[in-house]
């Protein structure tokens, strides 16, 4: 048998880890590959939550998160840190996922060494470099030189073709987050205790409809976050709903949300949930209010409508399929659309039965076969 292909997977944040772990499981199990893992530690606690549940022990951990890190110091540390790992490992391929500072820097460090880059979740474009910020540009940078583009949908593949990327290098795979969600759901079925810690809140809020909330986007810091908090306060006036809000560890999020929302009886501000517990929240909620990318993809897979608190989205497929609605960061709009879903059965049914456009849970096998042929 020929020498295995040496793949270095590089990631650093919670969403990358979630979307990467099914691929790492597959590469580890496949003798055609020598699978190596480098984590930047761009997120510390929230990354470790995923590594633990997915049972991944990285070969390299740069541990470079700083409190309230700036984009420039983070990027500088990532480039130099990942560069050293690449010099040591000399992989045949580097694989990155998505649009974070780690993905962009990992890919760039590989490009500087002429190591080919495979990009998972390629081709998402909002068309606005300020939304999501700085992710729109991060993703475009990786796409500009990646040798393999794993586009989750036809829409993403077409965006790449419009940028004159060679179609032979583009593979439509679905989004690996659906593979991750299937895996975690099966784990919870076998071991319900993995997701049992929400029981107290479920009891406290029994008889109420649960709204799951997440918010963390940098472009929403300041006014956007305040408007979101205002909307949550107004929704909380209703006594037939309760909100469960795992608050992101970014201090810019916690400062606002803790100050604005602490002490409301039917709003539970809690620490970030590990993946099985977040899957449980998706399962028990009536709808999700979020500015997250990943949640826009997961919630429709479970038939949960998503109100997206962003001005624009690089995931228009959800909006087109009718599973998601863009509500921006306008307080009145968020409250109005939320009440509509709570009070209008047909509006709710239309969103909760729409088709999930983000994949069939078999993305990883498509990616693995494309890498094997590389
Ligand atoms: C990052 C990504 C964003 C992604 C988000 C997912 C970039 C530029 N941004 O944004 O694309 O949507 O992650 O959550 O790559 N912190 C902790 N512990 C953690 C994680 C974060 O304390 O486990 C705090 C730290 O103070 C850190 C700050 O949050 O400095 C910001 O983290 P950072 O990764 O820079 O940005 P995010 O807003 O999380
Ligand atoms: N998530 C989680 N615990 C939480 C909140 C989110 O495990 O408390 C998961 C969620 O299931 C999704 C991912 O984190 O897969 C989304 O990450 P985030 O919203 O931080 O980043 P984005 O997707 O916006 O880049």
TrEMBL record:
Enzyme Commission number(s): 5.1.3.14
The EC class name is isomerase
CDD domains in the record: GTB_UDP-GlcNAc_2-Epimerase (cd03786)
Query: The organism sits in which domain of life?
Result: Bacteria
Instruction: Extract the Pfam families matched here.
Output: Epimerase_2
Does Flavoprotein show up as a keyword for this record? no
Q: Which reaction does it catalyse?
A: UDP-N-acetyl-alpha-D-glucosamine = UDP-N-acetyl-alpha-D-mannosamine
Start and end residues of each UDP-N-acetylglucosamine 2-epimerase domain: 26-371
- What keywords were assigned to this record? Isomerase
Q: Name one GO molecular function term.
A: UDP-N-acetylglucosamine 2-epimerase activity
Keyword Acyltransferase present in the record's keywords: the answer is no
The record ties this protein, via InterPro entries, to: UDP_GlcNAc_Epimerase_2_dom, WecB-like
Annotated family: Belongs to the UDP-N-acetylglucosamine 2-epimerase family.
Protein name (record): UDP-N-acetylglucosamine 2-epimerase (non-hydrolyzing)
């Amino acid at each position: 048998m020929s020498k295995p292909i040496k793949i270095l997977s590089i990631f650093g944040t919670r969403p990358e880890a979630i979307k990467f772990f099914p691929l790492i499981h597959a590469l580890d199990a496949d003798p055609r590959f020598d699978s190596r893992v480098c984590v930047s530690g761009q997120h510390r606690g929230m990354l470790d939550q995923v590594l633990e549940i997915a049972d991944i022990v990285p070969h390299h951990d740069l541990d470079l998160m700083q409190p309230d890190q700036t984009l420039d110091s983070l990027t500088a540390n990532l480039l130099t840190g990942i560069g050293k790992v690449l010099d040591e490992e000399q992989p045949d391929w580097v694989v990155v996922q998505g649009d974070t500072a780690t993905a962009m820097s990992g890919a760039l460090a590989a490009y500087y060494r002429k190591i080919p880059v495979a990009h998972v979740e390629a081709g998402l474009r909002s068309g606005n470099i300020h939304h999501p910020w700085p992710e729109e540009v991060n993703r475009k940078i990786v796409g500009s030189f990646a040798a393999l583009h794993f586009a989750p949908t036809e829409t993403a593949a077409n965006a790449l073709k419009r940028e004159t990327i060679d179609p032979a290098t583009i593979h439509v795979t679905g989004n690996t987050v659906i593979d991750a969600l299937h895996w975690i759901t099966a784990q919870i079925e076998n071991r319900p205790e993995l997701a049992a810690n929400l029981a107290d809140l479920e009891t406290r809020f029994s008889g109420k409809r649960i709204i799951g909330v997440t918010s963390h986007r940098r472009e929403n810091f300041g006014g956007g976050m305040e408007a979101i908090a205002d909307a949550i306060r107004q929704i909380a006036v209703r006594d037939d709903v309760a909100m469960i809000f795992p608050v992101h560890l970014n201090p810019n999020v916690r400062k606002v949300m803790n100050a604005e929302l602490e002490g409301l009886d039917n709003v539970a501000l809690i620490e970030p949930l590990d993946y099985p517990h977040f899957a449980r929240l998706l399962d028990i909620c009536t709808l999700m209010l979020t500015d997250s990318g990943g949640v826009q993809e997961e919630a429709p897979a479970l038939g949960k409508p998503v109100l997206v608190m962003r001005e624009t989205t690089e995931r228009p497929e959800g909006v087109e399929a009718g599973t998601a609605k863009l509500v921006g960061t306008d307080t009145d709009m968020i409250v109005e659309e939320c009440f509509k879903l709570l009070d209008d059965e047909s509006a709710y049914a239309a969103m909760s039965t729409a088709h999930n456009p983000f994949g069939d849970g078999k993305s990883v096998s498509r990616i693995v076969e494309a890498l094997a042929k590389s």
